[in-house]
Design a protein that fits this description.
Layout (H helix, E strand, L loop, with lengths): L1 H24 L3 H13 L3 H9 L17 H21 L2 H4 L2 H11 L4 E10 L1 H13 L4 E6 L6 H15 L3 E7 L9 H8 L3 E5 L7 H6 L6 E4 L3 E5 L18 E3 L1 E6 L3 H16 L13 H4 L5 E8 L7 H12 L3 E5 L3 E2 L1 H13 L3 E7 L5 H8 L2 H7 L2 E5 L2 E3 L3 E4 L3 E5 L3 E2 H6 L2 E7 L1 H15 L2 E3 L2 H5 L3 H12 L5
Parallel strand pairs: 2-3, 3-4, 7-14, 10-12, 11-17, 12-13
Antiparallel strand pairs: 1-8, 1-9, 2-5, 5-6, 6-8, 9-18, 10-15, 13-19, 15-16, 16-18
Helix pairs in contact: 1-2, 2-3, 4-6, 6-13, 7-8, 13-14, 15-20
């Protein structure tokens, strides 16, 4: 009996200490309450879940993204970024200047320069992206940098691997980062073949059994290719055959996704992100040089697009991607068009969308009709009622699976990237979005959005609100655990 009492006292002390740590360490009030309830009402397993998935690595930087060791050089670079961004802003159109708050925020928080004179190409689906990628790889002269969340051992994965090996044998330096969970199918064959062919390949945050749950929780969800420091690809399309839609009738599921090709100074911040990730994965000490970061005059192209990059992850002081989306929404005056495959937005984003809709702005949201996760889909559906009441139009994509992560505001700002609108993308994953301040690009992306909703079912507010309680209950339960998904 005495041993049982001692055990109970010890458990209570541990529980109190864990709860204090949760309160101290978790930024979001919603997530704090969720973890507290889990720890208190699910003995042992709740605490284990928190230590596996809930530790706030934003406060315990997983790695330093400080690429330049010399503080004086770093300070000078920072000053140059401010000066260059101010010059570009002053020289930009009225449309860009109307987005001043967003541009300034990204310079201050992310040290992401506002870059002009870019060419930007919108790549809809894998059948448009991969030919561009293979051609750009073929044209590489000095280096090819790639990092992907999902890289699969299939036809397109093999074709890109062959192209990389060919360039490596020609003397081009090829560096490749793959997420150890998302790209687990290539660990044995393709990674070995790349190494034998002269390509340097490393996993991001390698999964070790002892730390399996925690490492599994923090993934590199970025999809970045940088070639010769002048051409880059970024967006939602991983390297997999599933992203290529062949002739009608040859595959069961149509896969809708969006990517960007950028040529010009907008590439440089993507290069910076890759080098930081590379030094962490490869335990290397690559430093900026003229090959990685060509002079602006060398990068000059005929394009007139203004581009800025938003990136965040467990190494960030702030949830930069979330803040950039909120700022873009707050700046909108007429229209907000959002496509996302996973929609668990949190209170701040829900409130921003509702305020915009109630203020008379046309807010349209495109999500999958069927998600690849029933729990995530149920949690997402729990938010629809409030949005519909505020006037947000919600469309369920039925042609296939929509995996694109895009936003267009007022047909002036186009955002394409890797980040979903969910807690995981905002807090846990390493993500990157490209922001294009340009009416042509935003207009083209808006046209793609309207083509997509022609293949979607618009939710009827009255019918949705009046659904029977037994249909709403699972969604409300899923919403309770949504901060943990």
């Amino acid at each position: 009996m005495n041993w049982l009492l001692i055990f109970e006292i010890a458990y209570l002390i541990i529980l109190v200490l864990v709860c204090l740590r949760i309160i101290y360490d978790t930024r979001s009030t919603t997530k704090t309450l969720a973890y507290l309830l889990l720890a208190i009402f699910v003995p042992f397993a709740g605490m284990l879940f928190y230590f596996s998935f809930g530790i706030n690595y934003r406060k315990r930087k997983m790695y330093s993204k400080k690429l330049i060791a010399d503080d004086s050089i770093s300070a000078k670079l920072k000053e140059n970024i401010y000066r260059y961004s101010k010059y570009m802003f002053d020289e930009s159109s009225a449309d860009v200047q109307s987005s001043r708050e967003l541009a300034v925020m990204l310079v201050k928080d992310n040290m992401s320069p506002l870059t002009g004179h870019n060419e930007v190409k919108l790549l809809v689906n894998g059948e448009r992206k991969f030919p561009e990628v293979l051609q750009a790889i073929q044209n590489a002269r000095h280096h090819i940098h790639m990092e992907y969340y999902i890289y699969e051992d299939d036809e397109i994965g093999g074709a890109i691997a062959d192209a990389l090996i060919k360039k490596a044998k020609e003397g081009v330096t090829v560096r490749f980062i793959y997420d150890d969970f998302g790209s687990r199918s290539i660990r044995k064959k393709i990674v070995r073949r790349l190494g034998e062919g002269g390509v340097s390949a490393f996993p991001f945050y390698k999964i070790i059994f002892i730390a399996f749950a925690n490492r599994l929780n923090y993934r590199n969800h970025r999809k970045i290719i940088v070639i010769d420091g002048s051409t880059a690809f970024v967006g939602g399309i991983n390297v997999s055959d599933r992203y290529i839609n062949h002739a009608a009738g040859t595959r069961a599921l149509f896969w809708r996704d969006t990517h960007l090709r950028i040529d010009g100074p907008g590439v440089l911040y993507l290069q910076y992100l890759f080098l930081c990730d590379w030094n962490f994965c490869a335990n290397d000490k690559l430093q900026p040089d003229a090959f990685f970061f060509p002079q602006s005059s060398t990068l000059a192209v005929k394009g007139n697009k203004v581009v800025q990059i938003a990136a965040s992850g467990p190494d960030s002081d702030m949830p930069t991607i979330l803040f950039s989306l909120l700022q873009a929404i707050n700046l909108a005056k007429e229209e907000i068009l959002i496509t996302t495959p996973y929609f668990i937005p949190g209170e701040s984003l829900i409130d921003a969308l509702m305020v915009s809709a109630l203020g008379g702005i046309a807010v349209k949201l495109l999500v999958p009709g069927l998600s690849d996760s029933k729990l995530v889909n149920a949690a997402a559906r729990s938010y629809y009622g409030d949005l519909l009441k505020a006037g947000v139009e919600i469309y369920l994509y039925n042609k296939g699976f929509v995996h694109a992560k895009t936003m267009v505001t007022d047909r002036k700002i186009a955002i394409v990237g890797t980040a979903n609108m969910d807690y995981r993308s905002f807090d846990l994953n390493f993500e990157v979005n490209a922001i294009v301040y340009d009416r042509d690009t935003a207009g083209e992306l808006a046209e793609v959005f309207y083509k997509d909703i022609a293949e979607a079912e618009k939710i009827n507010m009255a019918e949705w609100i009046n659904r029977p309680a037994w249909k709403k209950l699972p969604e409300k339960i899923a919403r309770l655990v949504s901060p943990l998904l």
